[in-house]
Amino acid sequence: MLVDSHCHLDFPDFAEERAAIVARAVAAGIGRMVTISTRVKRFQQVIEIAESFDEVYCSVGTHPHNAAEELDVTVEALVQLSAHPKVVAIGEAGLDYFYDHAPRDAQAQGFRTHIAAARETGLPLVIHARDADSDMADILEDETGKGAFSFVLHCFSSGRRLAEIGVALGGYVSFSGIVTFKNSAELRAIAADVPHDRLLVETDAPYLAPIPFRGKRNEPAYVAHTAKVLAETIGVSGAEIAAVTTDNFFRLFSKMPRPTALSA
Ligand SMILES: [Zn+2]
Ligand SMILES: [Zn+2]
Questions:
Q1: In 3-state terms, what secondary structure has residue 182?
Q2: Which of 66, 114, 237, 261 has the most C-beta neighbours closer than 10 Å?
Q3: Does the residue 230 lie in any domain?
Q4: Which domain holds residue 149?
Q5: If you measure from the C-alpha of residue 178 to the centroid of ligand 1, how many angstroms do you get, rounded to a whole number?
Q6: Is the pTM of this model over 0.70?
Q7: In its keyword annotation, does this UniProt entry include Isomerase (predicted)?
Q8: Ligand 1 midpoint to CA 74 (Å)
């Protein structure tokens, strides 16, 4: 069994055929998917999807792109929404200085709100970080100093130092289809040095389809292609990468019940 730790099933790209996409993923051996919230104001659509499929769970939070529009979202609101049994994570939140769709101080403020909610609920924080290595490292070190919280650096595409800091602070590192791209040699070298018990795989669908689907719409079934490249990168078999990343997934997203076949 493989899992997709990060996808966006609520996006309009999937509207017509969501059930077929989940079915294709399950048929491909993807036993669990986490559909990630990007706007608290649209959380209702996300939770309805999670409620519709046994294999789908979700998060609640505001993507850094939308941080300026959702600065009124409080820690209390996140805590309250995350009480739903299908909500297994907070986020995605973080810093995106590549697009800078929201002012950087708004991104940081929203990020710290989500950290507080993760700390209070004990749910893991799904972190989006792009071109913001130094500020991300500073905030993670500052906030973990105030009190522990679990987190994953999702769709990792930052520099080696941020991966090392994330791991040192107890975090997980999740790799997407980017790790399969020909020009991602440095990213594969970083992945090879992440401790195996901190590795996760994801699609970030509908974006970032792995080779051989690069440039097309991504979907959770394709996470198998990312896992295959990650296995080759770290020198383990396909069965081992599935076992390791799935075990890590259930350890991090610990609110999600493990399927009985895996509970031993
Ligand atoms: Zn993201
Ligand atoms: Zn995402």
A1: coil
A2: 114
A3: yes
A4: 2-257
A5: 13
A6: yes
A7: no
A8: 21
* Ligand 2 mean position, distance from CA 264 (Å): 31
Which ligand is the nearest neighbour of the Cα of 94?
1
Sequence ranges of the binding site for a divalent metal cation: 6, 8, 92, 128, 154, 204
Torsion 81-153-180-4 (CA) sign: negative
Residue 205 maps to a domain: yes
Q: In what order do the strands lie in the sheet with 56-60?
A: 2-7, 30-35, 56-60, 87-96, 125-130, 151-153, 172-175, 199-201
Q: With beta carbons less than 8 A apart as the criterion, state whether 131 and 96 touch.
A: yes
> Residues marked as binding?
6, 8, 92, 128, 154, 204
CATH of the domain at 37: 3.20.20.140
Chain segment 239-263, per-residue pLDDT in tens: 999 999 999 999 999 999 998 765 4
Q: Is residue 129 part of a domain?
A: yes
What DSSP assignment string belongs to 19-53? HHHHHHHHHTTEEEEEEPPS-GGGHHHHHHHHHH-
- pLDDT tens column, 40-87: 999 999 999 999 999 999 999 999 999 999 999 999 999 999 999 999
Q: Is residue 263 part of a domain?
A: no
For the chain, the domain total comes to 1
